[in-house]
Amino acid sequence: MQTEGAWNEGGKGMSVYDIKPSGPDNSDWKVAIDEYHRYPEDVNIMQNLGMNFYRFQISWSRVQPEGEGDFNQTGIDFYNRLIDNLLKAGIEPMICLYHFDMPLALAKKYNGFLNQKVVSAFFEYAKK
Questions:
Q1: Which residues are registered as beta bridge partners of 95?
Q2: 119: in domain
Q3: Can you tell me the distance from the alpha carbon of 1 to that of 41, in angstroms, rounded to the nearest whole number?
Q4: pLDDT tens per residue, range 73-101
Q5: Residue ranges making up the domain that contains 82
Q6: Total domain count, the chain
Q7: Does residue 72 form part of some domain?
Q8: What pLDDT shows up at residue 27?
Q9: Is residue 6 part of a domain?
Q10: CA-CA to 127 of 20 to 30 Å: which in 34, 63, 76, 94?
Q11: pTM of this prediction?
Q12: Could you read off the pLDDT of 43-73 as tens digits, one per residue?
């Protein structure tokens, strides 16, 4: 969400941030820094800077568009490529599985983590 952009590409489902309006006091997450398209050059920059780890988020709605049910192999493949590039560059991935961007369908259906079904759905996502 904060880095990858490509909010409507690669089979990604909508997240709660995709409907949040952008404005002068908040960012437009739909593009962000466009890591989805630019990760090879981003990793190269990280390597040139001597970075040895990189923290990033896996977007739940990119790998499981509805937040439950089917997984999106295209989204999983994106993260596999990013991780492979990081490792090849000697940069250790530090992965965050959730950073406030719940899949919109799940948020609408269950109203967030207060519902045990969302906790169970997150567990299934995290296992994958």
A1: 56
A2: yes
A3: 19
A4: 999 999 999 999 999 999 999 999 998 88
A5: 16-127
A6: 1
A7: yes
A8: 65
A9: no
A10: 34
A11: 0.89
A12: 999 999 999 999 999 999 999 999 999 999 9
